[in-house]
Amino acid sequence: MSAPADELLRRIPFFRRLSPELRARVSAVARLKSHDRGDLIFSEGDPSDAFMTIVSGRVKVFKSTPAGKEIILEIFGAGDPLGAVAVYEKAPFMASALALEPTEVLRIDQAVFFRLLEEDPAFVRGLLSGLTIRLVELTRRLAELSGARVEVRFARLFLKLCDQIGTSDRGGVFVPMPLSRQELADLTGTTIETAIRIMSRWQKEDVLHTEKDGFVVIVRRALDEAAAS
């Protein structure tokens, strides 16, 4: 593991507003760790021994039911904290995190993390800002899952992925994230049969194509209309 440069820290929302002096202190104690696709970054029940922020890549956060079913809670990307609440509460991780692609994570040991919180109010403000953003996102997602129709939820999911990681390619907007039908069902709070039905229809209508390494949104306008309905 290596130490992060100041330029890298300034790209991460949690550290962006810190003074150069405080970022230098963070750089001295933080370490970068690389994970290959499919690596477990931590498992549900593991001790939360470090504060982590994604520098690059995508991470799936999920829980496993007693029956062995995997429920995806969220997909996080660059700049997002991982397990911050568990670290702050000194509690075991409440879910598991798996790298969906080559991913780099910034880590600060828990004891050092708390020392930084105690020594500088700016660090506390950064933490509260980051956690507030995640809380707003979770609240929005829970409202969608409980109220919106399934097709609306699918459309909003793909629009979010287009905005976050989409690139103009392959005759549309390419989303380089291969998700199974079960993973799509988990992310939208529905069944795999419904996920298959919606994705098959969009494929036939040339709205969205599934490829082995992700998805291509051909007609974004159709998703915009579905998301607003």
- The number of strands is 12
Rg, Å, rounded: 19 Å
Oligomer: single chain
Please trace the helix and strand order, writing H or E for each element: HHHEEEEEEHEEHHHEEHHEEH
Strand order, biggest sheet? Answer: 1-8-3-6
Determine the strand fraction and express it as a percent band.
15-25%
Q: Bin the helical content.
A: 40-55%
Largest sheet: 4 strands, antiparallel
Q: Which outline best applies?
A: globular
Structural class: alpha+beta
Number of helices: 10
Q: Quote the average pLDDT.
A: 85
Distance between the termini: 48 Å
Low-confidence stretches: none
Could you describe the 3D structure shown?
This protein is an alpha+beta fold and 229 residues long. The protein is built from 10 helices and 12 strands. It has helices at residues 6-10, 13-16, 20-29, 84-89, 110-119, 121-147, 150-165, 181-188, 192-204, 220-228, and strands at 31-35, 40-42, 50-56, 59-64, 70-76, 81-82, 96-99, 103-109, 167-169, 172-175, 208-211, 214-217. The strands form 3 sheets. A 4-stranded antiparallel β-sheet has the order 1-8-3-6. Strand 11 (208-211) and strand 12 (214-217) form a beta hairpin. Helix 5 crosses helix 6 (121-147). The longest helix is centred in the middle third of the chain and has 27 residues, at 121-147. The model has no long low-confidence stretch (mean pLDDT 85).
Question: In short, what is this structure?
Answer:
With 229 residues, the protein is of the alpha+beta class. The chain contains ten helices and twelve strands. The strands form three sheets. Strands 1-8-3-6 form a four-stranded antiparallel sheet. Strands 2-7-4-5 form a four-stranded antiparallel sheet. A four-stranded antiparallel sheet has the order 9-10-12-11.
